[in-house]
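Exercise 7. Given the encoded structure of a 282-residue chain, write a plausible sequence.
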């Protein structure tokens, strides 16, 4: 898909971090950006940065865990900027540092609501609209390298579970939309210098309200020297134009995936051997 000046984009979680990086890079290409975030003041800051650089954007408040809110945000963006050709389902929250059996149900509802239902809601909102346009469009879902493996060091299984879901949703969506005008990408970054460790400040009232979650805060030290959001945004723009499905900004993390694949393969071979069958083909 060739990104052209005057197109419209919808980017959730665009008030900060990777979402802001995407919004800035799309705006630099002449795309009018719907900057969507649960924190409206943050969204307005991103819009101000875009406008200061000569771009066009609108700030919209939305809780992506609520389907009606995503639909309303899409309507607001399209009313202001025109039909959305690029939708980035990017909003995400952290859930680190606590064993699975100790995570409160309200926190499960929150992390699943944003990280999984946020993607589902974006798919439900934008796929029909994009197919109806009949012109090249693109959806980007933000997962994580944690969507391909569970890091044993940081108690991130709850977060990884949601990002595994984002990967599966993206892979299935790409298969279903093959041969249509709508392309799909899944973004799987590792350490990026964002404020994701502070995401508890944006928990919606219906899921318990804003709070301080100190268990996440160690991530701030781990990611402060990570990739810059604007660089991730540039990779996303390039992937959209190249029609690339997987976006892996951190190739040095491949060994994490390789270790998981080796473990799976070994388990496969042991299972096959247990039934007296030949070893799986290389």
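Solution.
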């Amino acid at each position: 898909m060739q990104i052209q000046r005057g197109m419209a984009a919808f980017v959730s979680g665009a008030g900060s971090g990777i979402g802001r990086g995407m919004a800035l890079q799309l705006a630099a290409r002449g795309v009018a950006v719907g900057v969507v975030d649960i924190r409206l003041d943050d969204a307005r800051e991103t819009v101000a940065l875009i406008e200061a650089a000569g771009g066009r954007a609108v700030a919209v408040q939305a809780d992506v865990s609520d389907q009606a809110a995503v639909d309303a945000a899409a309507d607001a963006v399209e009313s202001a900027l025109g039909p959305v050709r690029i939708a980035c389902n990017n909003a995400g929250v952290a859930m680190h540092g606590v064993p699975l059996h100790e995570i409160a149900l309200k926190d499960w509802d929150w992390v699943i609501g944003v990280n999984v239902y946020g993607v589902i809601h974006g798919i439900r909102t934008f796929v029909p609209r994009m197919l109806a346009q009949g012109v090249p469009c693109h959806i980007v879902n933000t997962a994580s390298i944690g969507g391909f493996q569970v890091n044993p060091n940081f108690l991130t299984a709850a977060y990884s579970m949601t990002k595994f879901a984002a990967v599966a949703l993206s892979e299935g969506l790409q298969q279903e939309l093959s041969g249509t005008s709508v392309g799909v990408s899944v973004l799987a970054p590792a350490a990026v210098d964002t404020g994701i460790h502070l995401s508890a400040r944006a928990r919606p009232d219906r899921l318990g309200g804003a709070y301080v979650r100190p268990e996440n805060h160690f991530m701030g030290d781990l990611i402060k020297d990570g990739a810059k959001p604007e660089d991730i945004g540039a990779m996303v723009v390039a992937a959209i134009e190249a029609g690339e499905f997987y976006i892996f900004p951190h190739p040095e993390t491949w060994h994490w995936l390789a270790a998981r694949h080796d473990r799976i393969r070994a388990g496969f071979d042991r299972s096959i051997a247990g039934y007296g069958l030949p070893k799986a083909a290389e």
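Remark. The chain has two domains: 8-249, 253-282. Students should compare their own answers with the one above.
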